[in-house]
Amino acid sequence: MDFHDALKVRYVYRCDEKLAHQSHFFENYQVKEYVDSGLYSSIYRAVDLRDKTQWAIKVVDKSREYGLLQYPHDVKHLALSQGRPEIIQLREAYDLGSTGILVTQWADGDLKHRNESFRTIKDDYTFRVLAKQMLEAVQALDTLGLNHSEAKAVDFLYVAPEGRIKISALERAEWDSKPNDRILVTVFNALEAISANVELSSSSQSLLESIKAAEMPVDEAKALEKNNVDVWLRSPDITSIQNFSEKLAKANAACLAEENRIFEKEAARKKPKANELLKHEAFSDIPEDVRLELSASQT
């Protein structure tokens, strides 16, 4: 069976015809459009023909070694978050031989590309609801022991039926008990951009400052940016060395030592954690089960 015929998109995937028939995938889902693709998979929007609900279909090319290795990894990481409302949920998975399919919740928008509805946020209360749900997503990762250091704004998705922001791309997360302070920088940058259209209360401004503390201090960030081998090659201690190989080796070593010094200093710095930020006064009047209401027509 050819996915090109079934999905009507530019990528061709092959699957075991018997497994495909047994799965009833093609009977149950109608793929509507191609959304995006990555190193080993493609994403589509689909409709469940049984109940007319929308779902995201991730199609993994298992004919390639990387896809073959990643498919069970993706299923495992998505499955362990079952029941967590802060994380995009896996509905079901189909192993169809050289193709793997994961059916996950469909998002009506994200904080990067499909972000028109977020730009319509004008009031302080909605801004604080958004901040709360983003921090709850980070806290969920901390609770699960998953470090999602590469998470970007595009990985924060809006699921309209639940009125909630959820984090996605758990396949890129790693088992690590370290808090997700790097994601807090992403949270701050996203909220700061949205705040430009909102007249923030003093508590919201205080909240933003508290989240911003996760960022590397300006001096350290500048030092890291300026730290490179070319700079060290021009330093007095190294320019005096005549042998170029020795000079380059010493410059590389100095560059690495400086980088390690900066990161060690950063690791030792006390940074905010999601569970602490959720105790901020900005959330004192927001119910636990609050919905984030955005215009679905604009997502």
CA-based gyration radius = 23 Å
Question: How many helices?
Answer: 13
- The helix/strand class is alpha+beta
Task: Count every beta strand, where a strand is a DSSP E run of 2 or more residues.
Answer: 10
Please tell me the overall pLDDT: 84
Strand content: 15-25%
Major sheet, described briefly?
Answer: 5 strands, antiparallel
Note the run of SSEs as H and E.
HHHEEEHEEEHHEEEEHHHHHHH
- Note the overall shape: flat
Q: Tell me the strand order in the biggest sheet.
A: 1-2-3-5-4
* Helix content estimate: 40-55%
Low-confidence stretches: 7-12
Give the end-to-end Cα distance, rounded to a whole number of Å. 34 Å
Oligomer: single chain
Structural descriptors:
alpha+beta; 43% helix; 10 strands; 299 residues; three-stranded antiparallel beta sheet; five-stranded antiparallel beta sheet
How is this structure best described in words?
The protein has about 300 residues and is an alpha+beta fold. It is built from 13 helices and ten strands. The strands form three sheets. A five-stranded antiparallel beta sheet has the order 1-2-3-5-4. A three-stranded antiparallel beta sheet has the order 6-8-9. A two-stranded antiparallel ribbon has the order 7-10. α6 packs antiparallel against α7. The longest helix is centred in the C-terminal third of the chain and has 25 residues. The protein is flat, with a radius of gyration of 23 Å.
Summarize the structure.
With 299 residues, the chain is α+β, with helices and mostly antiparallel strands. The chain has a five-stranded antiparallel sheet. Strands 6-8-9 form a three-stranded antiparallel sheet. Strands 7-10 form a two-stranded antiparallel ribbon.
